[in-house]
Task: structure prediction
Amino acid sequence: VQLQASGGGLVQAGGSLRLSCAASGGTFSSYVMGWFRQAPGKEREFVAAISWSGGSTYYLDSVKGRFTISRDNAKNTVYLQMNSLKPEDTAVYYCAAAAVMGQEYDYWGQGTQVTVSS
Result:
């Protein structure tokens, strides 16, 4: 599975961005999809995940109520809608695919930079 993330950019605090991750080369609808992020000097952290059907979602506590993960299996795409952005959300965001929720992610996209200015 190949993953291509896009949609990052520079935004002021309180603003919004929507990240997209397009998948190819596999059966997208059979994968759990996740978003992770890595800020400078920090380890990569989990942000959000969505089940293959879209019926279950999980979030990092600090983004609950601000970020929404969704997927469109017909378009082989997963999204991360980010609202009320904060400077601490600044990071490179990666999408990833896993066969089973809670297990290791096998496929990773290249990352897209999100910068939130104060």
Observations:
- The CA atoms of residues 96 and 113 lie 15 Å apart.
- The radius of gyration is 13 Å.
- The chain has a mean pLDDT of 96.
- The first strand starts at residue 2 and ends at 6.
